[in-house]
Amino acid sequence: MNDVIPENSTSAVRPRPVVGVSLKLYFGLARTRAWLAEVAALRDALAALPRPVDLFVLPAFPALADARELLAGTGIGYGAQDVHWAESGAWTGEVSAGMLAETGARYVEVGHAERRRHFGETDETVAAKTRAATHAGLVPVICAGELRADDLAGAAEETLTQVRAALSGAVPGSEVVIAYEPVWAIGAREPAPASHVRAVADAIRGALRDHDVRGRLIYGGTAGPGTYTELGGAVDGLFLGRLAHDTEGLRKVVEEIAAG
């Protein structure tokens, strides 16, 4: 599937829907390979959808070669869960955007709440990684979301601060995906209320219009079947976690979005 989307504008033309999956560190290499084969087997189902839906998956670094092999010819994109801001140098253990591009990766996740919490990443870090990703021709999947659920106005402002900072690093005209993930909804029993997501999503779209990028907006945070329908067009797709470990659940979500 080609990631051809219209410019961000007030046009009635909607961007093509997109679904992403991050495996985090749940699978070992053999299980990841088996899962990628199951995802590749969705090819015919994706081709039969009533409208195209872009699908991408983000396994751990060592599985990128498997993704390249197993997803070849399926139209399903793949990428990494992190990237370093430097192209080369004495950065032990890090992986550059250029190296990811060499693997055939199309997407890279930046700024996830877990990286902020556990590894001290800041808005400046995320902007630098966004700059590196877009400079290398990758599509950054920019994660943003507030910590607490008790203040909608504050939630929108906290999230917008993260989004604007990240977009400040994007190469003009580049493609980005914003993954709105309220931190309090990640791993929760239910996704964030639809009214809350719609309000913050409207604010994020305003930020996208203020920057020279081609952007799509997806929701993550206990997303699953029914989430996209309930959001009523507020987002362009979903960012899935453990629900997609069962590729039947992934298929159901993609089919729901295609029918929406």
Q: Can you tell me about this structure?
A:
With 260 residues, this protein is of the alpha/beta class. It has helices at 29-40, 43-47, 64-70, 97-102, 113-119, 123-135, 152-167, 194-209, 227-231, 247-259; strands spanning 18-22, 54-58, 77-80, 107-110, 139-144, 174-180, 213-220, 237-240. The chain has an eight-stranded parallel β-barrel, surrounded by five helices. Helix 6 (123-135) crosses helix 7 and helix 7 packs parallel to helix 8 (194-209). Residues 1-12 have low confidence and may be disordered. InterPro entries: Aldolase_TIM (IPR013785), TIM_sf (IPR035990), Triosephosphate_isomerase (IPR000652). It catalyses: D-glyceraldehyde 3-phosphate = dihydroxyacetone phosphate. This is Triosephosphate isomerase. GO terms for molecular function: triose-phosphate isomerase activity.
